[in-house]
Amino acid sequence: MKLLVNGNHLQVPSNVFTIADVITHFFKHDPIVIVEHNGIILEKNNHPKQIVADGDKIELVEFVGGG
Amino acid sequence: MLTIGEKQFNSRLFLGTGKYPSFAIQKEAVEVSETNILTFSVRRMDIFESSQPNFLEKIDLKNYDLLPNTAGAKTAEEAVRTAKLAKASGLCDMVKVEIIGCDKTLLPDPVETLRATEELLKEGFIVLPYTSDDVVLARKLEELGAHAIMPGASPIGSGQGIINPLNLSFIIEQANVPVIVDAGIGSPKDAAFAMELGADGVLLNTAVSASLDPVKMAEAMKLAVEAGRLGYEAGRIPKKRYATASSPTEGISI
Fold first, then answer.
1. Which of B23, B45, B48 to mutate to probe the A interface, most A CBs <10 Å?
2. Of A41, A43, A59, the CB nearest to B44
3. Is B152 helix (H, G, I), strand (E, B) or coil?
């Protein structure tokens, strides 16, 4: 399956089914991450329920230092 | 005690989290500052760096309210999206509306700031717009329902201090919501001055993070904000053109 993640077209393995799987695929630890899936911002408790499909657009964002 | 919306804070110092030399120094500076409110930005993660550390993971989030900003937004729509992303973290319901309208001065876009404030209030956010020191704009933001007004002292990161105390004092006097002086603070003197003018709080970042000793400067800013507030509450003496002796003029034995 191919996903557009943070502007990058990437192939993900076949064991990636949900948004939570996408996060686990990219990050070793459990990061504080906010997800926008096909333009819809997700609540964190929906990450394990939200199914991803070929061609989906996913934005993974976080809090960084700022004033 | 500072009240914004229904939230109450012991500290009147808002601390930014950008550009510290290290997480260790930043953590110590944050602790020493005794701030209750930390500001953050929202950015894309680096998906090619799988074990990137994040400052939020270094602190006990129970001790702080997070104030995400919408920096990077040029329009109201972009700011609203950023605010919604921040809220979806489940970690905050306040937002600092920051919509830059000039790349050189980083001064805010007043029209987009008004539009974003209105929209975010409809969405139920606690909204703190970063604005210029324009008195009428500050009043209009309050009329929309903004929970605090955050006028800049001078351009972001410039360290020029308070360049228009008259306008700031007009904004403070007319406001019925907290006024937080945000941006441009360079030294403890500036922070104390803002508080002496009657500001309800001060938001600063670079003045601490880019100082030679951020931990020491964080403490200095804490003390300056407290001293300025106390001075404001105590009420300074009027300025006079000529001297007034503080020693008795009677009983001089010479």
1. B45
2. A59
3. coil
Nearest Cβ partner for B43 among A32, A42, A62:
A62
- Homologous superfamily in CATH for domain A2-63: Beta-grasp domain (3.10.20.30)
Residue with tokens 């998906």: B47
Calpha distance A2→B38 (Å, rounded): 38
Tokens of B87: 């809220």
What was the ipTM of the complex prediction? 0.91
B62 is catalytic: no
Rounded to two decimals, what is the model's pTM? 0.91
- Residues forming beta bridges with residue A4, ordered by sequence position: A9, A57
Name the residue in chain A with its Cα closest to that of B89: A34
B contacts of A65 (beta carbons < 8 Å): 16-20, 26, 40-41, 55
> Secondary structure of chain B: what % helix, strand, coil (to 5)?
40, 20, 45
Check A67 against B84: CB less than 8 A apart: no
Give pLDDT tens digits along chain B (254 positions): 999 999 999 999 999 999 999 999 999 999 999 999 999 999 999 988 877 778 888 888 889 999 999 999 999 999 999 999 999 998 999 999 999 999 999 999 999 999 999 999 999 999 999 999 999 999 999 999 999 999 999 999 999 999 999 999 999 999 999 999 999 999 999 999 999 999 999 999 999 999 999 999 999 999 999 999 999 999 999 999 999 999 998 998 88
Write the residue in B39, B57, B71 that is nearest to A32 by C-beta: B57
Chain A residues near residue B69 by CB distance under 8 angstroms: 66-67
Q: Which residue has the tokens 């489940």?
A: B90
